[in-house]
User: What shape does this take?
Amino acid sequence: MRESILTIPVNEIFEPKCGCPICTMRDMLETRTIEYIMGAAMMEPDVRIETNKLGFCKTHFDFMLKQKNRLSLALMLQTHLMELDNEIFKKKSFFEGKTAKHKKVSQINQDCFVCSKIEWGMSRLMVTFFELYGKESEFRKLFAEQEMLCLHHYELLVGRLEEIDKKYQNQFVNDCNALVKKQLDILVEDVSHYCNMYDYRNGGKDADWKNSKDSIERSIRFLTTR
Assistant: This one.
């Protein structure tokens, strides 16, 4: 897979100040990867070798099913299933205890071509992110001005604190805490308002739901990144 497909300028992700920037980063990598393999690239030998070997997880099968080109997915499934059969199930009996055959199946169940590319791309973007935060005051300001940070990516960033220059580590943790708390306060208010709107005293055609109607979806995304 060409490296350029997963090359995204970090500033381009943070400048819109919309949602969790790390979710945006992940989503862009995910979209580019799926569009790439569902296009002409699915006929590239090196790509097919990888998709045959790794397969896909449930989440990314669902993403690909939503694409218009179902034939691309069918062709990838065809050779993936054939390799699964040839490399594992045509070699002796599967019922031999925890054999090499069992281990291969276990590995396939845990692998995903798209997940592997996202992980590869994220690892490189995160290196750039931490370098920018430690070296550029404008980027530190840009990060602090983000709309929010989801819970999952809060854990990711604070868990890699040692990758930032020590003199900015406290500032970074405070920035992360503030971005999570800001969103958490909004969600608590909106979900609470949503629940209160089911009180008969708050009903009627002129009922003011404020920003609460999508508060359930926003809360799930904050908690899970999805």
